[in-house]
Structures are given as structure tokens and as C-alpha cells.
Amino acid sequence: MNSLAKTFCATLALLPLQATYANHGDDTSAATPLPAVVVTGERNGSLTASSVAAQEKRLDETAGSVGFIDSTDYQNSYASNLRDVLGNSPGVLTGTRYGQEMRVSIRGSGLARGFHTRGLLILQDGIPTNLADGSGDYYQIDPLALRSTEIYKGGNGLAYGATTLGGAINFVTPTAYTAVAPALIRVEGGGYGSERVSGQASGVLGNADALINVTLSHNDGWRDHSRGDYGQFNSNVGYRISSNVETRFYGGVYIVNQLLPGSLTLGEVENDPRKATLAAKSGNQARDTRTQRIANRTSFKLENGQIDLDSWFIHKSLLHPIFQVIDENGSTYGFAPRYSSSFNLFGLRNDLYAGAQFFGGSNHSRRFFNVGGSSGAPSADAEQTSKNYETYFENRLFVTDKVALMTGAKLFKNLRDYDSQLPNKEASKTYNGFNPKLGVLWLPQQNVQIFADIARSQDVPDFTDLTQFQPPPAPPTAVFVPLAAQKAWTLEVGTRGKIDRLTWDFTLYSAQLRDEMLQFTAAVDAPATTFNADRTRHQGVELGLSYEAVRDNFVAGDHITIKQMWTLNDFSFKNDKTYGNNKIPGAPRNVLRTSIAYTQASGFYFTPTLDWVPQGAWADDKNTLRVHGYALLGLQTGMEWRNGISLFVDARNLADRRYVSDVSTVTAATFDLGTGKPTNAIFAPGDGRNVHAGLRYAF
């Protein structure tokens, strides 16, 4: 057992693993029983944190495309990063690079960026985790510390103030009231030196409740020079001041030490995908972060509504040797009041969400020449300051018992100030916007919904977009580029529901964009350069199906459930003066995932999976280079016993296929004149065959 696991065990010994639950609950949901194999049933939520059933019910009433994930759906698999959480969600594109470094894109949000967050509002427990300029990482989201995940695609995140192209994802951690058990212990291991240990403990004492979750993981990496060590700590403490007032404090510490193997050419992916680039090794390229987060939600229950007051503070430091050494230290702070209510308006049911957000922060960003992974002569030194003022509302009026009309809008002002000391220069940019939304929800019968809506979105550039390193022979310093905000109108129609054994979620959407922020790699190992395209279009299909095909067939209480996910991505330029109607690179056209799950009442399960990308993504704006498609076979099997113990095996890429998991796009691919093979080193290979096993104990 490595030092991380030893430290964890010492920490776990101090945790109060046995706790007593109080049966307090919110008024929106009754307790939902868990399967018999779990020791304890799910408790109701509280004022500051709704029950899982109440979360899903509220989400289902959205007049638009949304998704909900219960953590129990993946608790018996090796959920190492957010791809394992979001992978079954139609419309959500995930691409891994190494370790927990990945790209998440919804409907082409941040399509050309293979790192950090862009075009998505990322929340934890309804409180933003993005930095003040809108950027962010996914490292601090621990899959093993989640109770549920809410996905709001496009303008459907307006209830949280999100009006970006991609929308919002809310990762919800458990409280002592909503945890699946008072205590959990989990130990996992697998190929390429992967090992992880996680523990959770919670309890209620009078009007107070508390939960703590710790996860420590190590992975030598499938590729050379890709070792990663992660420490993730999440906690929350709540106190019921009265029957109508509750406050909850959240705390988190996230430590990342990740070596980077660099990007490969297409030929290297096909012939030697486990290699690291020479630059990655000689420059000891890495990404080491230290993040601390504290937040508070204080909720007041009113006669016909609720007020939530959210506040938060995030501190993050980054040491990131790549083509240069990036050394950053910054803080983000915010305050967001939010009002929600359901009341009668002229005898009609009316649901209202209204809120405001102020959040800001500063980041001291320094760059140095990379000398063997150490900082050499300075090349840039700047203070990056962001301030954001936003107000929004979303209203749903049921004009009949089965038809609801939804209206909403967001008004915002975002400031970006750049004060450079090297070279000595100051620049700033202000973004203003008004984003309306109009939608309708029809409930033709119980458990069936049909919806349509149109919404405007705006994506404001972050400092990774605004401060660009120019390609040689320009001086290697950062230059402020005042990009325009990306704007779009998105129309969507869809349906979701359940009839007997069939469950579905189907959406068609089309977004017309202006000034889309696209990126291309300007130089090897340098950050991508961002530019505003003229007119572009994103459209597609998002389909999720689940059908219980067999019930009580082989033995009493067994089931066979077939699930199919299909995402169609059709992203293109529109009469562009350079690229015509070419496809925008970065995303494959079709992404499919099929699973066939066999389960028994005894707790045994067996689930083969197929991930299929018939054609890979274009790699360049000129559409001269396209990566190959692939099909990956997987298998998950295990056993859950009634005493709370479960054992699982998770095998992936059983055929050991070589494929591209992510691509950093370029404007035009280059080819060797002699062989005709592509020479751009812009591809991240997916992991080869791997098997993980784990033991979980809930008590």
C-alpha cells in the first residue's frame, strides 16, 4: 500500500463511522427505499439540500432537455473521472487525455478546447466552482463524493443563472440526511499501478448534522510520464436554526500532482501510443494544483417559497511546466441570493425562480522559460481581475393542468481587466448581455412529457482566451486579445418519459452562432490560440433509451435491461470566407454506447458494454485530416450482498484497440511530403486494455 493509502487509513481511524440519523426531512418528498442489498434507506433531504427524489422531480419539470444521474448507477464500477459519471448521458461529449485531465462539451461548448472548462457553468451543491473568469477544472469533482448529478443542457440552466451554449452541470454531494449509508469504505486497484481508497462518514446530532468524505488515489499511468496522485477532501456541516431556517457550510481541499505525457501524431497513436513526447520528458511537464474551497448556504422557508443565500470562496495555486512554466495563484469569491416559489396566479399554478449573482476574483499569472521543468527567466507577469454582475429569472405558468408556459431571462455585465508588468501594459474588456428564453411543456399523460423552447446564450472569453502567446518568430510573451463574446440562439424540441418497461429521453436541437470561440494549436506544446469565427451552426440529436427486455426469466427476480445512448453532432461553418461550410473539428459525428445489464435479486449482475464511434473527429478546419473511428468492448460484473458488502470487476477496452480519445484542433493539417502522413502532434490516445476490481462496504 502506498503512502497515500496509509495516510488515508490513519485519517479514517479518526472518523466517527457509526452515527445516528434523525428523521428530519423536507416537505417535497417522502423517503425512497433503496434496494435490499443496501444496509440503510435514503433519508429525506433538508432545507439546504433536497432529497434525491425531490431533485429528480424538480428537474423533470423543466421545459427543456435535462439529465439526472443517481450515484448508485455507477457505484459498482471504476469511476475514476467524470467520463465515468457522464458517459451514459446523451448530448454530453467527454474526452480523456491523461489521469483526470479531460474535456467536457455539451452541444459543442468549448469544442476546440481540450483542457479546462469553457462554455459550462459547473456547480457543486448548486454553488459555482468556476473561477471568476468562467474557467475551471474538473479535478475537484470527486465521483466517489457525489450523491447525484443534474445536467442542464443549453438555456435550461437558467434556473441557476446559466446562459452559456453548453448550460450547467450541478454535482450534488450527500449530506447526513441523503447519504446512502451512515458510513462507506471503498478500496480499489487495477492495471498500470492504479489504486484508490475512499471513505465517508456522517451523522446527525440534534439539530446539527455532518458528513466527511476523503479519497486518495494513485496511478502510474497507461502512458509513459503520466503518473498521477490525487487527494480529494469534501465535507459539510448543517445546523437547523429553526423549523424554517437552516444553514450549511461546505469545505473542500483538492491536491493534484499529475505528470503530462504530451500529444502525439496520428502515426504515433497507431504504432506507439504509450510513449511520451521528448518535450514532455525533457521539460518534466506536469500540472500540480492546490485548491481550497469554502461555501455556505443559508435557507429560509417562507409561507409559499424559499430563499437561499449562497456565498463562497475558492483559492487555487497552479504550477504547470509545459512549453513554459506557468505559475499562478488566485482567489474567487461570490454571493448569490436565490428565490424559489410555487403559488397560484389568477387561479393557475405558477413556479418562479429568481436570483442574482455577484462574483469576482483575481489571479496572479507568471510565466517562465522551462529549464528542465524548473523556472528560468521570466516571460510574463500579470494580474488578471474579473468581476461579474448577473440577475435572472425563470417562470413556469401552468395555463392548464397539462400545459405549462415558461419564460425567463438573464441580464449580465462581466468585466475583465489585465494588468501586465512584463511587458508593462494594461488592457480591459467589458461584456454586457441580455439572454431571454421562451418554452412550453406539455404533459399528455402521466410520466410523459413533450417540450419545446428557444433561448439565447452568450459565452464570455476567459483569460486563457484573452491572453495569447503568439507563435514564433514573435516574442514569447502574453498578448491581450480583446475577443468578442460568443452568441447563439438555440431551438430545441424533445420528449422524455416512461411507459411500462420503456424509458426514453429524446431531443433535437439547432443553434445558430455568431463569433464562436474556436481554437487552433499555433505551436508545439504551446497553448492554443483562440479566434472568433463569423457564423457557425451546431445541431444534433440526443437520445437515451432503456428497455427492460426480460423479467423473471432464468430465476425469480432477474432482469435484463438494454440501454442505448446516441449523440449526433453536426457542427459546421456557415459560408465562411476561408472554410466555407466545412465541419468544425474536434467532435465525432456519432457517439453511441450500448449496455445489456443482467441482474438477479440475489445481488449478482453482469453488464457487457459497447462504445462505438463509427467515424472519428475532424482534426483541422480545412477538413483534410480525420481520425479513425473505434469500437471498445467492456464488461462489468460483481455481487452485492445484503450485509452492505459489494465486490465488482470493471474491464475496459477488452480488445486493446488503439484509438484517439481527444484532439487539439488546428486550422490546417500538415503532411510529410515524402510519405504523405500527417505530422501534427495534436492527439491524445485512449487507454489500452485495463481491468479494475473493488470492494465496497456500506454500514
From TrEMBL:
Question: Which GO terms of the molecular function aspect are on file?
Answer: siderophore uptake transmembrane transporter activity
| GO CC annotations, alphabetized | cell outer membrane
InterPro entries annotated for this entry? Beta-barrel_TonB, Beta-barrel_TonB_sf, Plug_dom, Plug_dom_sf, TonB-dep_rcpt-like
Q: Which GO terms describe its biological process?
A: siderophore transmembrane transport
Report the family membership: Belongs to the TonB-dependent receptor family.
In Swiss-Prot or TrEMBL terms, this protein is called: TonB-dependent receptor
Q: Keyword set for this entry? A: Cell outer membrane, Membrane, Receptor, Signal, TonB box, Transmembrane, Transmembrane beta strand, Transport
